[in-house]
Design brief:
Layout (H helix, E strand, L loop, with lengths): L1 H34 L3 H15 L3 H13 L3 H14 L4 H22 L13 H11 L3 H24 L3 H32 L4 E4 L3 E5 L8 E7 L3 E9 L5 E7 L5 E5 L3 E3 L1
Antiparallel strand pairs: 1-4, 1-7, 2-3, 4-5, 5-6
């Protein structure tokens, strides 16, 4: 019985190392395809790795860059956006995302042919700016760690207040502890806000080459807007589903001037 267990254990170890080796080879192959300028195949390789290994900011960044080099701006914007959501502090991801947003805004502006319509998102208010700084620009785990640290310091303040005989230290522990308690609560709220955004599905990227938003969720509907270019980031505000609950149409919004319906096949949810 024991030899069989040993053999099984060794087999599992060998299998694990074999899988890891296969994964690393796949990554090397994808990197080599990209370096050789075969960007479409590199994107396919990175995508297959993501399907096996799961999402990561670096992998999505490489995938987005491969799509961008191959001219697929829809998938480039999609995966830059997903990479940014996974790691909003990464400057390379943010810079590439901003670059493509400005590039697509220029393309949408050209489609207007001189019409005075905004093709950029609505200007941020104080509250939307604060929400972006809290929920979008900082990951929830960062806020959670700060909340834990603040709570531990709060407990330290309580200990100082309870066990120190020095009046000044007791006052410091008391008032400092109260402040740290409310700070830990604030960081916890921020963590929940960021986690809620991370799990949300209210943003999408236009994947169709050029298409207008429609007035109604129907193929016979008249256009509500001029054509938008592939890669435009949109906010999802409503949806129509079939009898099985699968979305078939989405009502999307770019800004106060550009709002309407698109088929679910025309967009990809971030």
């Amino acid at each position: 019985m024991l030899p069989k267990l040993i053999i099984s254990f060794l087999f599992c170890i060998v299998l694990t190392f074999s899988v890891k080796a296969a994964e690393s080879v796949s990554t090397d192959v994808a990197d080599r395809l990209y370096e050789n300028g075969d960007y479409a195949k590199a994107a396919e390789a990175y995508l297959s790795i993501a399907e096996v290994d799961g999402a990561s900011p670096g992998l999505y960044y490489n995938l987005a860059t491969s799509y961008a080099q191959s001219g697929d701006y829809g998938n480039a914007m999609l995966y830059y956006s997903r990479a940014n959501r996974l790691d909003p502090s990464n400057k390379d991801i943010r810079n590439n995302l901003n670059y493509f947003e400005s590039k697509i805004e220029d393309s949408n502006r050209a489609e207007l042919r001189g019409k005075k319509i905004s093709v950029t998102p609505d200007p941020e208010t104080f509250f939307t700016s604060a929400y972006r700084l809290i929920a979008k620009d900082v990951r929830y785990d960062v806020w959670a760690r700060l909340g834990v640290i603040s709570f531990i310091l709060f407990l330290g303040g309580v200990a100082v207040y309870l066990f120190c005989s020095n009046v000044l230290l007791r006052k410091t522990g008391f008032f400092g502890g109260i402040s740290l308690f409310f700070i830990s609560v604030m960081f916890t709220v921020f963590a929940f806000m960021s986690a809620s955004y991370f799990d949300s599905h209210d943003e999408a990227v236009l994947m169709a080459y050029k298409t207008p938003l429609l007035i109604e969720p129907s193929s016979d509907s008249k256009p509500a807007t001029n054509q938008l270019c592939q890669g435009t980031r949109l906010e999802i505000i409503a949806e129509e589903t079939d009898v099985e609950g699968v979305p078939t149409w989405y009502k999307v919004r770019l800004n106060a001037d550009i709002e309407g319906w698109l088929r679910s096949t025309d967009i990809a949810v971030i």
